Structures are given as structure tokens and as C-alpha cells.
Amino acid sequence: MAASELYTKFARVWVPDAEEVWKSAELTKDYNNGDSSLQLMLEDGTNIEHKLDPKTKNLPHLRNPDILVGENDLTALSYLHEPAVLHNLKVRFIDSKLIYTYCGIVLVAINPYESLPIYGSDIINAYSGQNMGDMDPHIFAVAEEAYKQMARDERNQSIIVSGESGAGKTVSAKYAMRYFATVSGSASETNVEEKVLASNPIMEAIGNAKTTRNDNSSRFGKYIEIGFDKRYRIIGANMRTYLLEKSRVVFQADEERNYHIFYQLCASAHLPELKALKLSSADDFLFTKQGRNPVIDGVDDAKELSTTRHAFTLLGINESYQMGLFQVLAAILHLGNVEVKDRDSDSSVIPPSNQHLTAFCDLVGVTYQDMSHWLCHKKLKTATETYIKPIPRLQATNARDALAKHIYAKLFNWIVEHVNKSLHATQKQHSFIGVLDIYGFETFEINSFEQFCINYANEKLQQQFNMHVFKLEQEEYMREQIPWTLIDFYDNQPCINLIESRMGILDLLDEECKMPKGSDDSWAQKLYNTHLKTCSLFEKPRMSNKAFIIQHFADKVEYQCDGFLAKNKDTVNEEQINVLKASKFDLLIELFRGEEKATSPSGAVPGGRTRLSIKPEKTRAAHSSKEHKKTVGCQFRNSLQLLMETLNATTPHYVRCIKPNDLKFPFTFDPKRAVQQLRACGVLETIRISAAGFPSRWTYQEFFSRYRVLMKQKDVLADRKMTCRNVLEKLVEDQDKYQFGKTKIFFRAGQVAYLEKLRADKLRVACIRIQKTIRCWLARKKYLRKKNAAITIQRFTRGYQARCLAKFMRRTQAATIIQKFQRMYMERKRYRQKQAAALAMQTILRAYMARQKYRRLLREHKALLIQKHVRGWLARQWYKRSLRAIVYLQCCTRRMKARRQLKKLKIEARSVEHFKKLNIGMENKIMQLQRKIDEQNKDSRVVSERLNSLESSHAVESERMRTELTRLRGAEEEAKNNANRVSTLLEELERLKKELHTTQKEKKTIEDWAQKYRDEMEKMVAELKEQNGLLKNEKNDLNRMLKEQSQQMTEKMTRALAEETQQLESDLNEERSRYQNLLTEHLRLEEKYDDLKEEITLSVNVPKPGHRRTDSTHSSNESECTYNSEFAESEESSRATEDVTRGMDTSLTLKLQKRVTELEQEKQSLRNELENKEDQFQRARARDDVEHKKARGAELEYESLKRQELESENKKLKHNLAEMRQSLLGNAGAGTGAPGSPAYKVLLDQLNSSCEELDVRKEEVLILRSQLVSQKEAMQHKETMTDPVHHVEDVSKLKDSGEIKQAYIGLKDTNRSPRFLRMPLEANELLSKLRSPTPDFHRLNEDGELWLVYEGLKETNRLLESQLQSQRRSYDNEVEVLRGELQSVKEENNRQQQLLAQNLQLPPEARIEASLQHEITRLTNENLDVLKTDDPTEYREARVIILRRMVDLMEQLEKQDKTIRKLKKQLKVFSKKIGEMGAGQIEGQVSPGQMVDEPIRPVNIPRREKDFQGMLEYKKEDELKLVKNLILELKPRGVAVNLIPGLPAYILFMCLRHADYVNDDQKVRTLLTSTINSIKKILKKRGDDFETVSFWLSNTCRFLHCLKQYSGDDSFMKHNSSKQNEHCLSNFDLAEYRQVLSDLAIQIYQQLIKCMENILQPMIVSGMLEHETIQGVSGVKPTGLRKRTSSIADEGTYTLDSILRQLSAFHSIMCQHGTDPELIKQVVKQQFYIIGAVTLNNLLLRKDMCSWSKGMQIRYNVSQLEEWLRDKSLMVCGAKETLEPLIQAAQLLQVKKKTDEDAEAICSMCLALSTAQIVKVLNLYTPVNEFEERVSVTFIRTIQTRLRDRCETPQLLMDTKMIYPVTFPFNPSSLALETIQIPSSLNLSFLTRV
Fold this sequence. Notes:
Oligomer: single chain
Number of strands: 26
Radius of gyration: 59 Å
């Protein structure tokens, strides 16, 4: 592929950068061959020009597509180079918070410097059993791979953990060991992992120190071998250490510290036990103050010492040894403070009274003179003589430091040896996994001998790593039959040869150490002369002659030669060692004992390095003296060689720890430091080796699925391999870029990116084409839809218009014709009418017009009259109104005018003119009349008649005028009188005017006052209204506050009650879960115990005779008396195997016994706690106990009297029996009583029956005593529970179900008491008081009168209301009592009638029993009525009466039972007698015998019909056969298909009923015990068979329900028929066995869940996650070396249909077995929880599953599961709710994840997911295609901010081992026992129906 095709515009590349190492850039211009530079644009928008190297013309590295960024495996990247690796690690670490990444076979672990919740047991369980590529990278995945390969390949494994100081090597090794301990099942048994972890504080204290890079740096290497047995369980461990940095004991650089243990001792010097060490502050000692920083921030050295001492104790190092170790360490500190002074130039001396040397000698037990002498002298030996020579001060100081280092090294080895002893395995080791925690490549400013050894070791490990990677690559190519070409990889063998070969650096160093005057300078010159010109890897610094440079695989390192010889020699004055060996301190002698043996259990060698040896100890002991003389370098080379041999003999697994930054900031990535470490640890070398070959590898099916879009239909063939070959040949022209293997296609680096580019381009073009086509289709569809709509509208509109036009035209034409004929008709008719009636019309019209005129004139006349009268009336009205207005003012004026007018009238009346004027009108009228008369007389005589009428009228008018004249005269007289009154009226008017004026003034004054008063009143009214409004508002506020507070109080109480109820329910569920977990643990220990017994039995070649192993029959609630026989058998078996197990290891057995003891103690503590709770109830009722003490005393006296009577009766029976025996003996000689006579046999049978009767009486006495005691306890318990106040107070204290049950019983008993009936009133009053808020009196007014009045009214109303309610309640109570009495009388009457009718149908014996039962019932009801009293005296008397009645009834019942049994036994005796007589007669005569047999049949046949009660009788010796046929050998499949469900349970219960019927307690006990043990045995044998476990779960529950249904308890007899009530157990109370069976059912249920989980577990991940239910939705992404399981459904792959079929199979099996429906619902709920939890856990641990398409797949799968629930009618069982976390996780994958609104929606949607789970899913979200977008870091931070207030557990994964507490609701059976038939296929013919 040409560069011009890849380096085009917009292509992204990596360019070097000084700060960030590599920067991303984008090409702004296409690259053409021959260009000298590239035009780039950085991510910040800066344009740069990148110059190409003119020699190499190397182009910058290309960036991988975004879809490949963040991959789990670095080898999955298409472009494999340093910037791609660095960027991928950074994205995973910073953005996704993922610290683990694969790089081929290497796990890269970046230290997050923060605690992460990814190491819990749930994570371990999730990775257990998974392939390494199926889950996200993790240290647990590497550990699982090592564990799996060890078990599969039978080959030892090694995990090599390396890295810089502070990179997290120790933590990674610790988590790997924790994983091994957990998955191997040894965490709770051998405790090896706990011991190894306990050794960590010790090893950190003595081997870790603070450096400039790490506060807790390990200054030694260690290799821990974890041993496993044949079952691959941890049995032990062994630790080997390497290259302890001894120089740190005597010297520390700035800002560094010595080993932690010294500072811990100095910080704890004040402790009393450490006073003798004479320690002080760390600043007072030379060995601890050189670093000038003795304190680590955040570390308490005193507290760390206590942790170290506790770890010593755990590992078996007692207190005395610990103090001895502290003495040696304190002596080292004092030795460092010993000051050596110059005596002269060649000698030195120590002052005689040196304080620190004295302390040193006292602590180590040596003499001061010897030690001071040999610190300043040395012994020289020659062939003949020995000289003692003084040494100068510098040599003496060096000798002192060497001694301190030597002592510390010995102490370190001694501690390692004892740690190994505590971890030593007692069994033979089958295989091991080694964990190597070793220092990484180091380079400092000053590098000395320690760094040289460390880097030398890393060179060896890197060579081994390179060879292993190369080997794996070669194996892969050979396996796929790829032509193998030699890959050029870096081989560091030359560097190793430079160090360890002949005349190498180490050889020259050893040679220089042997020289008498050897020095570092001379050694450096030898190095220069030997290697400077011959080896290119060796260089000399320019400015130094005491240093050299080695080109290591990681980097160049400059070493300073100073100190190399001294550190290599590691010499110690032998005389000083001899002085220490002569010490009186035992521990010191033990430390130097190795000087002679030169061996240790851990393979330690002098100098502090632990040698890895594969040879036996004896071989090494022979060369101890020689090894002691070896140099440190030689020893380290040998131990390293042995380590490499061990690693080469194992399969290695590599973990490279990376330190992201030097400041220890959490999740902060420093690219420079990361690249440096990646180069040093070999990760980049792995990448380079992979890139040199074919790093990208695809299976043919994966390649076809991914790149199907690049193929045409004609290219797809049936052969996938050929299809891929043809397509690749077309897509990639260069044949060298890929190779075809057997199962995979191999690609060169960059080819996958090229194919992804082609795929993305093809998809982009396809998307554009699809969008174009869809948009065209949508637009055309829209256009056609509009066009069709328009055409339709136009068609309908035009049609409508046409129809309207036609209609209009038709109507117009019709109208025209109608008009024509109508007009013609009308005209003709009109013409004829005019012609025929013209005259009549004229006449009528004229008459009409005349009448109209007359009527108009009449109307006008009448209108005038009406107007006249109306106007007159109006005028009068106006006049009257005006008159009223001015009458008072005109009165005087009118009087005056009247007087004047009167005078004037008087004058005028006297004159003639007046009368003329009066009569002038009359004359004129007369004249007119006369003229008219004359005229009329002249005209006709008719006029004369009219004249006469006129005359008559004139006469009338004249008379009227005369009357008017008379009136006027009267008026004149009245006017005269009025004139006289005018003066009086005027005077009155003046007076009235004055009064009016005065009145007006007064009125004005009054009006002003009234206005002022009105204003004041209005103001006052306004103020009052305002105050009234305020008062109303305050009243409303108070009422509202009262209402709100009342509502709040109610809500608070409701909420508190709900919380309390929820808390009680949760506590009950927790207690139930805890109890069931204890049962599970107990069952597991039982199985373990049985397994151990089987192993012991199998290990014995010749078993002892009589040896027998029995199953354990212990249960959590079983009593010891129930299993005495089993205990005896177990003791017998233990005695039989005692000699066999004597020589075996019993540590595991002892631990199991200890665990069983702890469980028993815990159970006992729970019982004690229950008893304590009961004692608290009893103490609360102590006062009532004192009150009732006398009554109880009377009861006890009465009971004692009854017992005495029974005992006396027993004595009488015994006396009668003795007399009968004597009489029999006395009459033995008589003929009638001869032993062979029939009478003798009859008497003998009666005697035996009497003996049996006596035994029965004994048992009845015991039973009666136990019943009396239980009744007494029950009554006491009732007394303690009758007080409701204490019950209410102590409800919140109840813990378990037993206490809640007792409290409920007490509450029911309390409710029957009338005292409790008054409690609701008190509660209501109390509630009302609580709800009433505290009023604010100052808000109302100052005096508070209004509030006091309001309170008084409220109190009065409350009092009246309470009185009314009390009267109403009393009335209601009386009515209810009367109604109850009436109803009870009716019921009693009906009951008596029914009983009478039933008794008449029963036989005499049954009548007696029924009458007694009826009497007991009646008395019980009466007693309950009597108990309902408030008087304590009456209450006590009633109780005494009840007890006496009960005892009397029991006596009567017992007497009746005794009589019946006696009669039955006599009947049996006589039947036997008759049978014997009949047999004797048959021998002599045949026919009489037949006659004798005839009377026997009528006796037996009615008995069977009468006594048949649904029982099965069996002999005691047939019990084993019954259990064997019914339980052990029964096939569930046949029973489930052919017989009724629960048949074995019914048969066992019917057998149990017969044992109860015959009152055989031993038979009951053995039957139940055998049943339980047999069920346990069959479950142990076939516990992995779901059908068997389901069958016995169903039968165990049915057996438990039968025990409850027929127990006689009223609560279980509600649904029984009368016949079923007759079948109740009568003699034994099996409540304890019900608990045992309930525990057994719980164990079976848990076994069922476990079996179901084992079947479903392999299907869940494949069916729910990996399989593509909707084909083609998700695509396969490129993967690396760790191939994941393919999601394509191959043959044998589990799918969702497999899960649904399995669920249906489970459901059908349980239904066939008759499992209770409620129990089926619980099982289905547990099934769905397991499915949801396992799916979600894998989703959270698999980055490739977190995509949008996978979310759609999951939601579809969940919908199929819900559909299955609906089909089975199980939607209400709670199974759907268990899938809610998975549903929300799938929704989270599909929702939009960009804006704040999206974040809010996610927070409100994902309520079932924890914050850690939500953030984890968002971090893992990975786009499958380039069209999807990643979740931004900002969005994730927003989610975290919104969810930080959630209160939840930080656990990431769901607990897949969690089992919901199971309950067994009572489910009575309607099946009648007497109807059950036993099929012959069960082989139970020995059972007899009774």
C-alpha cells in the first residue's frame, strides 16, 4: 500500500513533543512521494511544518481509528508503535478509569493511587472459570489463567510482577494470592492466605523503607510459592527473598529513611515493656537520622508497631521471641552510636565507659571488653602464626557498620525462616504457582552496586521474557501453518555476557576483591582496559575515571565504582562474630547458628539474599564453608541462575506495574515517566515483536462477519475460507500484508486500519446512498400524497359544483314553468273576480271607507277625551305636588288675598254690573235659542219638537245655574270667614319663620355633630373591621397550623409505623437469611465431615469388623435425645477407626470440629438471647406475678394432689397385681389352674394385659405431668402477655420470628380482655394531645382573653364530645353484647341439635368420646367468657375453676381411654384363646373347626370398617425396608408421571399416624429420624440431579404440611373437613420435628437453587450477552491476542432459547412433582435474580459488551423472559423486579449521553443501579461503529456530582451467591387419607391399611 494512499488530507499522525512525548496532528495537505515535509495542524489549531529526515525519509506514525482507541489489548491496535500504546493507556486510565490493559501476554497495571472497588469476592467469583480474553483485563484474569493452566496442563506456573518502586508490585502480588486462596476453596480452612497477608506487615517493617520515589519501597525481592494438592487446593506456601539492601541499615540518602522497624521501635519507646531497650527519639541515633526526615506524612509508627506485633503473634512468634527481636534491633541502633576515636594514625580506641556500647553489650549479652577490643583490632593469620593488629578509626567504623549489617541480615533471614515454617505444608505438594515480586529496572543520579545487581536481574528476566514471547509467536505461526520467517528482535545476551561471562564485570570484581590491595579505582581501570574497546555496550564517562556506563535493554545507566568492592566482599570480622556467638542471649545464638550450617529452611545465604535451590539440603551442607567465602556478586549470580531455572521450568505470566506520576496523585498520567517505564519493562519490545510479524489475527468467521459489507453477493461462497481469500486478494494487492492460516487470517500492522477505513468508507457511501434514497422516497411519497389529495379534492369539488349547477338549472326551468302557469291562472282568476264582483267591491269598499272614517272620528274624539282626562289628572297631580310644596308659605298670602278678594267681591256683589256680567251669557244664549227656534219653526214642524227639547234642556241648565249661584254665594261667605283668619295666619307665619330659623341652626349643628360622629364611627368600624379581619386571618392561620401539624403528626406517625414495619420485616428477613445461611454452613460441614470419614474409610486397606459409618443427623434445632442412637453409632465408628486415623494428619478435622463448635455456640447464643428477651417480658410482669402468686400456688397444690392420687392408684394396681400373682401361684396345684389348662392361659393373658396396662399408666402419669407443666407455662406466658402497655413498649425490641410470634399471641390474648377495649379511647386522646400544637398567646392580644375563651369552648366541646362518645360506646357495647348472646344462644341451640343427631348415629363408644369432646369445647368457650373480666379476684378464681374442669375432663377422658384399651386387650386375649381352641379342634375334626371360625368374622369385619382412619401399619423390623423402597430406591420420574403428587409424603405420614395411634414414641422417633437421614442421603448421592432434588423438596414440604394440618392446632385446622379433623394426631406433639423438617426443606431448597445455578450458569453469559438474538445489529470489533468468545451461534453454543427451554423444563418438573405454587414463585424469582445478576456482572466487566447495539439485544432478551413469565402466569412473583438493574443498564447503554438534561434523565431512570455501576457502564461504553460517539469525561463527572448524595453501598457487582430467604406458606391438602391407594410398583406390600 503506497504512502500516498494513507498520508492524505485529514489523515491523523503522531509527531514527537518535548513535553507530552507525542502529540496528535492532522494533515492539511496530501503527501506526495518526494516531499521533504508535511503540512500539519495540531489539535489546538496550530499549523506546523514537520520536516522529514532526509536520510531515512521516515514518515510520522499514523493514528489508529477512534473505534480502536481504548482497546483492552494493545495488540488489537492496527498501528503498533509507541505513541499508539501510550495514547491507548492514557485514554483507558484517565477517561475510563481502567488501570489494567493487556499487551499480548503481558498485563500492564497502572497504579491509580486510590482505592478501587474491583477486588472484592464478587469480582473474584465473576472471573473464576472465565477465559482470559472473555473478561476485561484484571490481575484476577491472569491469576485465573495460571490456575487453569496448572490444573489443565499439569504444569507449574509463575506470575512475574515487576515494576519501579511505588508502581504497585506488592499489592498486585497480594491480590493474586488472595484470588488463589478464594477459588481453591481454602480461605476458611487452611488460612494460608491469611497467614501470608499477616506476614506482609512483618516483611514491610523489616524490608521496606522510605525512598525519594516511594514511602513504602520494598528493598528486597521475593518469590512466593503457593503449593496445591491433587485437588488443587492450597496446602501451604514458601517465601524466598533476594538481595536485601543491607547498606540502608547504616546509610540513608537525603529525604530517605532506614527500615520502618527502627522508627516503629523509637516511636514506641515509652511503652513499659520496651523501657529496657533504652531507646529514645529516632533523631538520637546515627542509623535513623541521616536522611533528616524521620517522619512519613499520614503514618503513625507507634500504631504500625502494634500491627507488626499482632502479625508476629498470628504467625506463632510468641511474646518472648518478639522482645528478643526488638532487643537485637535496639542493639543495632546503639551500635551505630558507638564512637571510635583515633589513638594514633594506625590505631583507634573506644572509651571505656561508652554509654551506647554498654547498652549494646547488655542487650546482646556479651562483655564490654571483648566487643570494644575487637571493634578496634583484627586478627591476621599466617601459615605459622597469628597476629592481632590495631586498625585505624576509618576501618574500625567500617567494621562496626559491617557488623550491624551482618546482624540485621541474620535477623531478616531468621524472620523469613519462621514465616516459612508457619506457611509450611503438611501434605505432599502436587503443584505450585509462584508469584515473583521483584524490583524493576532502576536508574538514579548515583547508581551503585545495588542498582547494578537489580538491573542485572532485570536483564536476565527480560531475556527470558523475550524468548517466551518469541516462542509463543513461533508456536502460533506453526499451529496455523504460516511460513515462519525469523523476526529480528532485541537480544540482550551481549549485555548479560558483559556482566556475567568470563572476564566480565562480575569476574573482574571478584578478582579485584581477592587482591590484597584491591581498590575501586584499580577495578575501574581493569574494566576500561578489558571492555572499552571490545564491547560496544560498555562506555566510559567523559568527566570521570571512577564510573562506567552500560547500555541496558531499557536505557543507559552510569554506575559509580565507589563502594563496589566493599559491598561485594561484605566482610565481617570473624572475632566479632565469635564474641556474638559466645553471647548469653539465646536468640542471638540462634541467629548465628547458620554460620556453621550455612543452610536455612528458606534457602538463605549470608548477605541477606535467599537462594532458590532445587537441590536437597544435604548437598548444600557439604559446601557450606566454601559458600561462606563467596562474594555477594557471586552469590547473587548463582541465586539468580537458580531462579531462572525455576521460571524456565514453569509457565510464566507477566504483570508489568507502571507508576503514572512521581507525585502520587490519583489518576494523573505523566507521559514521560510512563514511556520510560514502558521501555524499561519490555512492553514496547513486545509491541515491536508483534508488529514485526502479523499482529492482527482474525478467524474466518469473524472476518466474514465484520467485513461482509465489502463483499458482493457473487463473492459470498459456501466456504467461508475461500470467500475471505477471494475478497482479500481484491482488497489488498500486496500478498505480503496477510497470510492465511488454518483457522485465522494474519495481517501486518496497519492492515486492519486500512480495512476499517475501507469498511467505514463503504458504510459512509452506503449511508449516503440510503439517506439519498430514503429522502427521495420520503419526498416523492409526500409529493404523491399531496398530489393525490389535491386531485381528490378537486374531483369532489368539481363534482359538487356540477351537481349544484345542474340542480340550479333544473330548479330555474321548473320555476319558470310554474311561474308561467301560475301567473296565467292568477291573471285569469283576478280578471274574473274583478269582472264578477266589481259592483259589490265598490259597495263594500265605500261602506268600509265610511265606517273607517266614522271609526277614525270616534277614535279621535275618544283620544281627545282621554287626553283631556289624562292631562287633567297630570295637572292635578302637578298641582297637588306644587300645593304640598308651597302650602305653608302661601297660606298667609292667600288669606290676605282672600280678604282683599272678599272685599272686592262684596263690592261687586252689590253692583248691577256684576249681575249683568253674570247674566250676559244667559241672555245671549236665550237670544240664540229664540233665533234658532224661529228658524226652525219656519222650516218645519220637526224643528218645533227639537225646540221643545231644547227648552226642556234650557230649563235644566237654568236649574243648574241656580244651583251654581247658590254655591257661589256659599263660597263668598266662606271667603269672608277666610279673610278673618288671614291676620292670625300671618302672625303664626312669623312665629313659624323664627322657629324655622332656630330649627335650621340646630339642624346644622346636629348635622355637623352627626357628620363628625358618623366619620368617627366609620373610622372605628373600619378599625374594627380591620381587627376582625386580622383576627379571622389569625384564626385561619391557627386552624391551618393545627391542621398542618395534625397532618404532619399523622404522616409522621404513619411514616414511623411504616418504617418500623419495614425495619421489622427487614430484620425478620435478615434473621431468616442468617438462619438459612447457618443451615447451609452446617450442611456443608456435615458433608465435609462425611467426606473425611469416607476418605479415612477408603484409606484403610483392611477395615475393622463391625465398623459402620452413618450419616450425620444433626440439625440446628434438633434435640440430643432424638438422636441418641445416631450418636452411639458415630461413637462406635469413631472407636473403630481410632487406630487407623492415629497416624494421619488431624489438623483439618480439628479445625472442622472447631468450626462446628463455633456454630453451636452461636446457635446457643441466639437461644440465650431469645431467653433473655423472654426474661425481660417476665420481669416486666413481675408485679402481676406477685398478685397471682396465691392462685398459682393453689393450682400447683391441686396438681400435686392429683399426682399423689395417681401415684396412690398406681400403688393399688401394683398391690392388686401382686395379689393376683400370689393367687395364681397358690392355685397352681389345682387342676383347673394347671399350666396347660385354658383357664390358666386366660389368667396369664389377663396378667400380661394388666402389666401392659400398668406400663401405660406410668406413661400416662408422665404425660400428664408434662401436660400440666406445659399448661402452667402457657398460663404464665398468657399472664405475661396480657398487658398491652408493655407489649407496645417492647415491640421494637423484638428481633427474631419466635419473639414476634409470642408477641402476636400475647396481643390476641390481650384483645379479648375488656381492659384492652378501652385502649383505643386512650390512644385517641393521646393522639389528639400530640397533634395539638403549642399556641402563641401573644399573637392574639395582650390579655389573651380571646384565646382563653376559645380554649374554654374547645375544652367544653371536647368534654361534651367525650361524654357523648362514651355513652354511645356503652350503648353500642350493650347492643353488641346482647346480639352476641342472642347469636351464641342460637348457635348453641343449633349445635346441640346437630350433636344430638350425630350422637344418635354413632356407636356407644363413639358417643361417649363425642360427648366428652363436646363438653370440653363448651367448657372452654365458657371459660373464655369467664376470663373476660376486669376484676383480678374473679379472674384468678375463673382460672382455678378452668384448670380444675380441665383436669376433671382429662381424668374422665383418660378413664374412658383406659377402659377402651382394657376392653380391646381383653377382646384380643379372648380372640387368641378362641383361635387356639379352634385350632385344636381343627386338628381333630375339620368340619367343627369351620363352625368355630364363623363367629370370628363378624367380630373383625365391623372393627376394620369402624376403626379405619387412613393409617398404615408396619412392623418395626420393616422400617428399613420402608425407607429403602420409598426413599432410597424410588425413581422420581415414574412417581411424578404415574402417581399422585406427594405420594411418599402421604404414605410416611399415614405410617406416622399409626405410630401415634398406638402411642409408640420410639416408633415415631425412629421413623422420623430414618426419614430425615434417608432424604439427606439420597440428596447427597444425587444432589446434582434437579429432578431428584425437586421431587424431595415437594415431598418434604407436603410432609411438613401434613404434620401441621393434622397437628390439632386450630390455626392449621381451618380448612380441614370434619373427617380430616378426626385424623389429627392425638398422643404426640411434633412441633420440634416440624422445625427439623422445615430446616431440612430449607437445605433442600438451597440445594435445588445450587443445582439450578450450576445448570444455568454456563448458559447465561452466552445466551444473554454473547449470542446475537437479533442478527446483524452488532458487529465484531478487532481483537488482540486474547480472543473473545464469538457471538456467532455455532453448533453447541447456548442461546436465549436454550435458557427459556431450561426454565420451562424446571417449571414443568416442579409442577409435575406437585410443588407448592408459592414455592415455585420463589424458585423462579431466584432463577431470574441469578440471570440478571450474572448478566449485569459480566456487562460491568466486559468493555466490548457496553455498546448501543448490545443494549438493544439485552432489552429484547429481557422482553422474551417477561413473555415467558406471562405465559406461565408468574408476573406477580417478583421475578421481573429482579431484572430491573439489568433493564436499566440496557437503557443506559441506549439513551442519549450528552447534555445536562440527559444526565438528569439518567439519574431519575437508573434507580436500581448504584453510582459505581452507572459510572462503570459510562466508562466502559464503547462505540462499535464510527458513527457512535464516546461518553465525555465531563458528562461522567456531571453524573457523579448528581449522584453523590445517594446513600448506597460502594459494591460494584451484584452478589450472585445471594439466595432470597425461603418461606413455606401453609398449604393444606384436600385429599382424604382414607382414599389413598398404594400402588404395587412401590413394593410396599408389608404395609397394612388400618
